[in-house]
Design brief:
By secondary structure, the chain is an alpha/beta fold. The chain contains four helices and 18 strands. The strands form three sheets. Strands 1-2-3-4-5-6-7 form a seven-stranded mixed beta sheet, with helices on one face. Strands 9-10-11-12-14-13 form a six-stranded mixed beta sheet, covered by helices on one side.
Amino acid sequence: MKSSGLLHMSSPQHWFTASDLDLAVTTFGAVPDVDVTRAVRAIGRVLRRHHLDAATRVRVTAPATAGEATVVQANIRCRTVATRVQVTGPGGFAVTFAAERLDRQLARLATTQSRDWPDPARPPLAKVTEPRPIVRRKQCELLTGTPAEATAVMDAMDYDAYLFIDSASGTEAAVAWQDPLGVRLFRQDATVVGPPAVNLLPLTVDSEPAPILDEERAAHVLCHHGLPFLFFTDQASGRGRLLYRRYDGDLSLVEPA
């Protein structure tokens, strides 16, 4: 099947471009074909504007319930740096929002400009709810480095918080964007002194050590207090973990591999 320069693969959820770009779109749920075409054209224009021919992977997830937002994520390796954007929006507008955000992200990463925060395009997923289940676990080989290095990855990957191994303490830590414009550092050991700034942005070091919790209690704390994420020390392993809320309201857990 051929449509608007797209080739439809054997699975109805996977598409790739029939053009000079290495651009693939994967859909989840009832995503209209027109949104796939829109994604390829919009993301393709951004790549050409920035003279990039790197492999780009776009994921479009339709809402499970009518009236909820579509989630669009785009991943690309921009001049050896892995870059990602993720946004939500109604129907085909989400694809347009993602293309615009990727355009701004690529332009900003080519300079020393910092990310805008608070981010009106993606408000924190912070709301008080009943405890929600942990539906996804991500076991990651964590970066070992400084808060500045962790912040650079968080920025390039369009994360709101990022789990890493702090080279100063040798234990897990997390960085997160903080209002009005800056970074907050969370450590398992709060006695380690942090730098005053990272990447030209002011840095605030959380004065309390990470709470020691099991997963069930961590989920309860996050939901009960309406937090977008929670960095904690796992009671069983002693390792730092990052729990955060998904767009569907459930929770994901990032832990060391």
